[in-house]
Design a protein that fits this description.
By secondary structure, this protein is α/β, with parallel strands linked by helices. It is built from ten helices and eight strands. It has helices spanning 2-9, 48-56, 83-99, 113-122, 152-157, 174-183, 190-195, 197-209, 238-248, 268-281, and strands at 28-33, 71-76, 103-108, 128-132, 164-169, 186-189, 214-219, 252-258. An eight-stranded parallel β-sheet has the order 2-1-3-8-7-4-5-6, sandwiched between helices. α3 packs parallel to α4. It binds manganese (II) ion. Manganese (II) ion binds at residues 133-135, 219, 221, 230, 259. The site of manganese (II) ion has 7 residues, from loops.
Length: 284
């Protein structure tokens, strides 16, 4: 009774777009991964989930009908400094969400977390993966480590189960590009999108046509955003990413948005993350 009374006047903040924590009735389950232990350049994306939540509460996305959304924000993964422990925790959480027939929305955190999300998903379906990233993340080893933000996709491709597309790449080694061309089903570079955005949309239309469901991973550095661990130039625009997402939106069964580092800007990169997820959640 006293809790009910206090809840008349108090609430827990911030949560993603003001979502409660009603897991049972949810269709989408939000959780954060405040982890950046393998970040090699500018650390700070451990604060990404918090920043995304703070800014989401100040945003009204017109096409997003918040009242009809069955979304629960379950909080953040317990903190650890060990990448293996983070990956195990994320995998167990995502397995639980999928096994309950729900869709995960993951707030990052460094990109490495996607490896666990995809491994969990692979237990349930042969997924199609669409990655937006200015990097290829296909190094075999980086700074004496085989599992980190620059190698995770290679680790996934070594035992991949479905098709993979990577969109917006522009910062990579020759070795990564060769490996990618061998293993990745659709690659659209940042330059291709900027030069011919309609053609990029059509390529995605062809890719998505024959797949059942899609998992999307968005590294916000695809936008050339400032608040990221490894900034790059010549990013795609928000609108170009949304135009591609529109093609596959109705097939999305999970999404992560990663690498938001709020220590490096005044919140704009977190706002991009909010809008991208908000757009995916909107029905029209
Ligand atoms: Mn990246």
């Amino acid at each position: 009774m006293s809790r009910d009374f206090l809840e008349l006047y108090l609430k827990r903040v911030p949560t993603f777009f003001g979502a409660g924590d009603n897991y049972e009735d949810s269709e989408y389950v939000v959780f954060g991964v405040p982890f950046d232990s393998t970040v090699s350049f500018i650390p700070g994306c451990r604060f990404g989930p918090l920043a995304i939540r703070i800014f989401s509460e100040q945003i009204s996305i017109p096409e997003l009908n918040e009242n009809s959304l069955k979304i629960a924000d379950m909080g953040d993964v317990l903190q650890t400094l060990k990448v293996s422990v983070m990956l195990k925790r994320v995998k167990r959480i995502v397995e639980k969400i999928f096994s309950d027939g729900k869709k995960p929305i993951i707030l990052g955190g460094e990109h490495t977390l996607t490896l666990s999300s995809l491994e969990a998903l692979s237990k349930f379906t042969k997924p199609a993966i669409v990655i937006f990233d200015s990097h290829l993340d296909l190094l075999d080893e980086y700074l004496d480590s085989r599992i980190n933000h620059a190698t995770w996709l290679r680790r996934y491709l070594e035992k991949k189960k479905g098709v993979v597309a990577t969109i917006g790449y522009r910062d990579f080694t020759k070795e990564e590009l060769e490996y990618g061309k061998d293993k990745i089903d659709l690659m659209i570079s940042s330059e291709e999108i900027l030069d011919n955005p309609r053609n990029a949309v059509e390529k995605m239309r062809d890719f998505v046509e024959n797949v059942g469901s899609v998992y999307v991973s968005v590294d916000v550095d695809v936008l050339g955003a400032i608040g990221v661990s490894n900034p790059t130039l010549t990013g795609t625009t928000y609108k170009q990413i949304i135009n591609i997402l529109n093609i596959l939106k109705h097939k999305i069964i999970g999404i992560d948005v990663v690498e938001v580092n709020p220590l490096l800007d005044h919140g704009l990169t977190a706002v991009y993350a909010c809008y991208i997820i908000g757009h995916v959640l909107s029905r029209n």
